Amino acid sequence: MEDDLNGATSFSDVDLEAPKSEFGKYLDQICPYYMSYGMTWDEFWNESIDRFATYWQKEQYEIERRNQELWMQGAYIKLAIASAFNKKNKYPEKALRITELSDMEKEAENKHKVEELRQMLMSHKRRWKERQKGADAD
User: Fold this and answer.
1) What mean pLDDT comes out for the span 7-22?
2) pLDDT tens, 38-51?
3) What's the pTM?
4) Nearest-CA neighbor of 51 among 67, 59, 39?
5) 4 Cβ contact list (under 8 Å, min separation 6)
6) Distance CA 53, CA 74 (A)
7) Where exactly are the structural domains of the chain?
8) Is 95 helix (H, G, I), strand (E, B) or coil?
9) Which of 2, 33, 87, 128 is the most exposed place for a label (fewest CB within 10 A)?
10) What is the pLDDT of residues 90-108, one digit of tens each?
């Protein structure tokens, strides 16, 4: 067992009245902190100390993710306010992307843009021909 148990060889031998080491006091303080990360009491006290780093890193990722979510929320609010005061600023019709497009998505988007451009050019061509017919009739 650890020195923190004051020489006891099992938990039943632990003198609960004996003073704890400074490290034991520190562990008592940080136990709720790591439990708030999702670590169980049993994991904290009985598993490898390596788990602390894993739970700490998990928490850092969650903080980073939450920060990104709040930033995006602010961006949406900014767009909403801008679109309310100026009709030139349109609120997005679909969600803003926070990840890069995959190669398949890029290809599909490019095909869609090419098709839109083709439709627009065909429309202009039809109008041009209609104008030419009208000019020829005069």
Assistant:
1) 62
2) 899 888 888 888 88
3) 0.52
4) 39
5) 20, 21, 23, 24, 27
6) 31
7) 1-47, 51-99, 101-138
8) coil
9) 87
10) 898 888 887 888 999 999 9
